[in-house]
């Protein structure tokens, strides 16, 4: 945990050590930032009798039963279908009017808390308003704006930062990606789950090929480029978000060329195409490559402003050829 | 003006179903016909009591509220049944539907009786023809007996329907009052309860005739305005109109309003909820009523409309109370999107006369302030009759509130 | 784990613990029965997390061998199949054996079942309760105290604490108190000398749990031991152990709300009054408010009436044993009155009124251990 969310984990560890655990936490962060993992870890730290420096042992009865869902004083609520229903919160409400089963320590986690129905939110609010001594609520959300402000104000808000690039690459490698691929996917997104999905996505694999082809064609066969845009590029990057991704990949290529020129080869994303980058760097000088980076950024902005994608691409490739 | 009817007068029918519950059971299961039937709370238990019984049972002396064991002693072959209120309500509805075929001026009084104003109904025949038709249709379509009284006003119609049971039709004209009504003992008069009868007998009024000629001032002293009212009736006078709305009027009171623009602003919404709550509270207060269910209607910007209601554990009638419950319902059901229209309705309405509030252990002491007032009221009611207090406050309000009854509800919103 | 024992005794114990098991639980392990064998006994446990029931089968009872062979161990079995299997076994003896992979075999005669079990470590463990906060009562007295109070608990969740019965030690008495805020039922018994230094002051037991307990307790004068813990209370009968969670929070102080003076006192025959109110309620019930009215008529008669506009009217005068103080007219819920009179345990009751809008108290004439309080309804 410490390695992924250093700031947050330091704060939580210190509050557990000082036995100053809040009645309610709201963990918010994008997908893949480790909300569930952190919440369960916090729950274990609260129950585990063998923890060291707030790190639970993960092997005792309490820790194991939190994992298996059999801990009688630990409750996990997540959307039943599209939303978290009133009945689910009613169940919680009943649980908290009773004493605990094994001790009076109780923890509940509401995952995807933004998916509570209005009714469920209002019920939850009622017992956040009158917290009992030994109860801890942990709400998880990707979108804290969608949580009732009255609920937010009763929770200690914890923002989980997106993973930094190095952590993400490590994580991706742990998930079985090659180092080269891990670098690429960590460069296109900072969300672990999204990166993993993309690595299995055929469309994305083809997108990478088309970008390589475009970069090569710009050097070897500039007259064919417009045709290529028309017949290959446009059909593949049909939707606007796809077109943006195509430009992102192009951006990475030109960045790599700049890294080649300034001799920071370890920063390269497409390092496994080292020979291609070297060749391209011969074609575009450092200044050229840098200029092209800003042309690509311009193109991205234009796409954002709803300029026709084909027009944007045609203009961009003309800039490349100057 | 009809050829049958007296000039400036009206023709009123009182339709009274004969031993309604038992008759409905017999219609439902014809094998019970002609047999002594009784409806009782707990047929299995000896301590059950008779709610109603068929004429066959009554002939043997079976009476309402008599303990079951006693009834069985009087009538050994008595068939005892549990009440099926659903069945009775259905029969009642169908019975009133028959009355409505003749005129819209039907005033249901209870589940098994109602008044009709047939002054404008000469197309169906003479009053006695109409009564005959009604009795026949109710018998043919529902297999139920009824007695009908025909008279120039509600009181006489009611007294008339009581004169011949079952299956009677009785005409009571004003000129027959002396002959037919006056000899009756005072406790047979509609509107004279056990207590009033005792009081009247104490000042030597034993028949309806005695009441008709009694000293008016003395009556007023004894019974309040109710005394004067009863004397008028003993003389065959009753000005109450047949009011088809009386039974529906208090069921619910609501108010709704469209916002000037679609909004998500809590302030706008609260302001409108306050306005609506105030409208409803004013109308409730004018009717001296309160309700136990609050309904909220929300129409969203996309015209999607939801209505949600909730039962409240007490009767509410104050603006603040209505607002609080409307607001809670709103919060529970608002998805945060823009609102076009809101409506607040109070349902399950009863007049304060019928109203009871269960006191609460933890708050009853707050009501102690009301206790003295309550004692005074009870005292006054005993002395001057049930309506005196309510009427006074009702009139009081009218003075301040210029919207009189002819403006009715549609002007309130 | 291995057990060889008589089938009938096992069936009996399984039936006891099954009463606590609910398939609706959100905790997966609680859909099972826990079996725990030690050198001297076999213990079965069932729980829905609110209540937990344990049934113990000793190896030997009064010289009779109940269990032929025990190898200690424990396992959790799905409660859907295990009881059915045991019940349908062909032979009078049953052999239950589990291996270290949580596989269980049940053998009887030539029949053999194999079931998958779960790790008993996953099962909730009940906290050990302190013996210095324990006391004992005869079964039937406890049953009475429950019966005389639990009906008055609130069924509404608006004040969850009122859904339980408040049990407290005060003035050398053990008190049971329940109220839904419209009526209150209280029962007390004097503490015996050995109970005087109980270390608990008060707990609130969910009404639902007490109803369950009442169902499994036998109506005998055998003693049951009651242990009060911080978050559980346990009732220990001979081979049965019933544990329930408590309600959190402070029970409202009710003693100051009970009037100590009265303006009108009525002495009446319990049964006569009960039946009269019951008759009057017959018509009141249909018109939802359930209200009957009581009016004193001199020193010997009260009138019970009810009136529902749509249906009709009941009036009945009953003779009472005596009346002291001011005349009175009061309206109240017939249901509350019937509930209160039903548990009076005495032929004669004394009703103390302090006014038409104040709570009134019903007690047996001959003892002050039972107290029922009812809030009247206000009519307008």
What is the compact description of this entry?
In chain A, 57% of the residues lie in helices and 8% in strands. Chain A is an alpha/beta fold. Chain C is 16% helix and 43% strand.
Report on the architecture of this protein.
The complex is a heterotrimer of chains A (322), B (413) and C (380). Chain A is an alpha/beta fold and 322 residues long. Chain A has 15 helices and five strands. Chain A has a five-stranded parallel β-sheet with strand order 2-3-4-1-5, with helices on both faces. The radius of gyration of chain A is 25 Å and the shape is elongated. Chain B is of the alpha+beta class. Chain B is built from 16 helices and 13 strands. Chain B has helices at 20-28, 55-59, 68-74, 85-100, 127-142, 154-161, 177-181, 194-202, 208-212, 216-223, 225-234, 246-249, 266-286, 319-333, 368-384, 388-400, and strands at 12-17, 37-40, 50-53, 79-81, 106-110, 113-117, 146-151, 169-171, 252-263, 289-300, 305-316, 339-351, 356-358. Chain B has a five-stranded mixed β-sheet. Chain B is globular and about 70 Å long. The model of chain B is unreliable at 387-413 (pLDDT under 50). By secondary structure, chain C is α+β, with helices and mostly antiparallel strands. Chain C has three domains: 2-122, DNA Polymerase III, Chain A, domain 2 (Roll), CATH 3.10.150; 131-255, Roll (DNA Polymerase III, Chain A, domain 2); 258-374, Proliferating Cell Nuclear Antigen. The mean pLDDT of chain C is 90. Classes of the chains: A alpha/beta (322), B alpha+beta (413), C alpha+beta (380). Chains in contact: A-B, A-C, B-C. At the B-C interface, strand 13 and helix 15 of B face helix 5, strand 23, strand 25 and strand 29 of C. Chain B: This is DNA polymerase IV.
